[in-house]
Protein 1
Amino acid sequence: MVEFSPIGSGRGGRFRWRPFVWRGLAFALVVGAGLAGLRLGVGVTERNVFGVGLAAQVYYVLGLFVLGGLDIGTPVGGPRLGRMLLWGAYFVAPIITASAVIDALLRLVRPLARRLRTLNGHVVVGGAGQLSSVYARKLRERSPQRTLVVVEQDPNHPSLTEFRDGYRAVVLVGDITEDAVLRRLRLDRAHRVLFLTGDDFANLDAAAKVLALAPRLAGQIVVHVSNLGFMRETAGSRVARDCEVFNGHEFAATKLVHDHLLTRFVETVELDLVVLAGFGRFGQTVLKQLQEYADGRFSHVVIVDERASAHARDFAEHPGFSGDYGRTVIDGDVLDPDVWDRIQAVVEPEGRAPVVVLGTGVDSTNVQVALRVRKHHPDSYVVARSFRPSPFSAEIVQEAGAHPLHLAGLIGQGMPERWF
């Protein structure tokens, strides 16, 4: 298991330089001793070191620092003092190298172990994904001094540097569901624990283990579950009772419906036709919110996705279709012009501009389709989803008369203050 931790600063910093200084001096002395031995006329059994020049002799001496050693043979001939100097370099050089390697390994482990032992009142976040980044940013705004511990299974996750340097987090690489990892987090002293990985089952499983290890954290554990059906099926579990289970897409979808779509529905005399282009977890959450808060304000919903039929069947089970509106399900790529011909066949008889929510998981696709829809339906109301704000995409979407929707901001707004 690879571990990372920020290096501290302060008075102790000068002591950390001492091993480097002493090791540097030892290195210089050994190189000098070895080179002096060769210059005094000492030979070696496996190389001709006479008349090869100073640069080559330096190369041979530096080879002594390679673990395993550069095979130049043993010292022979020359004055006794020269042989003693060269033999000394033979023995000391690999010791210096080995000590440097060991010291480097210990510096990776000791700071983290020390930080973990002294944790108190800290926040633990499982996962280094986009949700965790949104939370970490808000935590630093609300509680700059609160210690943040991020646990991520992938040692090569691209966001680890951002958490460690940008958010001053202690980063522990390991599986958040493993008991050994959880025990290192000093959960008995933790302020709050959030499980924000992309694996719903792992989040729930880890939360259950934390409740067993630190029962006092009941009510202080936040669990993200992105699958609405799974979220509903686990509603009766102990984790659901003693933890805050939430859906980030639900935060964003609620804001979308209340701040955008309801206003549009009120402004139009006739009932609107809604096109949901992309019916993954975000699109399904939008429809759930529409059914709950805008029932009777839209007449028809067109569901478009490469797996629209399969997703619609899942949605029919949990949370279920409800309300008095028509429904059309189209399987296909939202970038395919033939798909939009099929959508047009539904929209045209209605005789009014549709409301189009572009909620695929690919931000560039949403922008591209938004421009196309506005070109062919200039009176349509188009919302283009992206996770993070992009000045470029926001500019071209707004210039086309569409509305950019940034999930990160909406999810952050939906996170209650008590989490921080």
Protein 2
Amino acid sequence: MSRICELTGAKANNGMAVSHSHIRTKKLQHVNLQKRRLWWQEGNKWINIKISTKALKSIQKVGLDKLAKTNGVDLNKF
């Protein structure tokens, strides 16, 4: 299973781990994903979705339906 937010499409970022002696090694900065059961008001049903915490914060501010429409996600598939 891939570590991608199902609502926003956020995925891992490439970064560098820098040691005390300034030796750089590659690392992945993963998205903070959570499995949540959210109530979809317009569809009048519960949705089980794997979502990032940043998207959860956006849902509280904007709303689930509006955020899904801006990202082009069909909530009926969940």
